[in-house]
Design goal:
Strand order of the largest sheet: 1-2-3-6-5-4
Strand content: 25-35%
Largest sheet: 6 strands, antiparallel, barrel
CATH superfamily of one domain: Trypsin-like serine proteases
Number of helices: 9
Structural class: alpha+beta
Distance between the termini: 101 Å
Number of strands: 20
Length: 428
Amino acid sequence: MVVRYIHYLLLKASSSMKGLVSTVGYYDDHYQQYQQKQKGNRGGTFLAALVGAILGALLIMFSIPTLSKWNVLPYDIAIKGDENEMKEDMSQKPVVQKSVAVDVVSQVTKAVDKVSDAVVGVVNIQEASFWSQGGEAGTGSGVIYKKANGKAFIVTNHHVVENASQIEVSLKDGTRVPAKLLGSDVLTDLAVLEIDAKHVKKVAEFGNSDVVKPGEPVIAIGSPLGLQFAGSVTQGIISGTNRTIEVDLDQDGMPDWNAEVLQTDAAINPGNSGGALVNIEGQVIGINSMKIAQEAVEGIGFSIPINFAQPIIADLEKYGQVRRPYMGVELRSLSDISSYHLQETLHLPEDVTEGVAIVQVVPMSPAAQAGLKQFDVIVALDDKPIRNVLELRKYLYTEKSIGDEMKVTFYREGKKQTVTMKLAKESF
């Protein structure tokens, strides 16, 4: 208690060095008066005691805060300045956290407001036949991306409109309008529709899917499980970029195409197909296409990157089909051919185990004009090794254009040869 009382007096005294000096002056004047009245050594004792007390006070005043910080003292001392700083820090932290949370929510709602009017429902209507009932075969989603010359254009998935005899588009307010199918591509699972522009108030803005990074927040908008839940919004992140998914187009158990997609954990359910994957700026960076639907799998959905989709969309809008370079051959991977036919039919050297066999050559096609024949085995295009049909198709469709020349390396009757082929446009 004595120490605390002394500390209290010292804190009061140390508020100003002036006060301390004036106190010393006060005692010094009185000491001189006292010395005149008193004789002997009693005055010297009083002065020594006073000087000792002041020096001790100064020592305690400067040492106690340091000892307190080192936790040496058996009690806590709250220094006014530190306490105020502490209160100030604590008062600021909740404000910062609250501000961040509000900003995130605000960004998401702004992004949704920006694009939601441009996301529509797509209804696939099929005519009745002797074996089946007519009516709505299914619903999906679509994105209005353009208005021009009194028309509005919508991108969706090929599988959403496949085999449709009629197509209707359901707008955000529930209005259903007829739509015309301009073109559809099974390989990329994209299709383009056209409706009257008078029904459309807003179009979506395309972003840049090439700069998307894992962990980036995204929003999926569509009509999961039908028009009843049209305009549903789910939020997640980009789980991965440049994912490659094998696609079996003809359901024969063999992959026909490697789809390059964005992976997201934003909920994508049946009916979301063809809808928008949106970044935090409200720009469409992907067209939702598929999800892995297995009992033990959750939160793995895929979206076609918009940078990949845009040239496909442009071709479908303008030509009704995707203009790709054409070889004019029917192919089969060597891995699908028995070892007997590899030796007896194709006459391949034993060390050639990867490549693509030509099953048939279309007359007058680029392959026929280059001199390729049935049972030739292609092993490289432009000196790039080709191991199977998937690799050949991907190289042809992503690296070459109509009118390009392409070097083909192949085996015929066990001998390695090369030819140059000029690629043409595929005719339907």
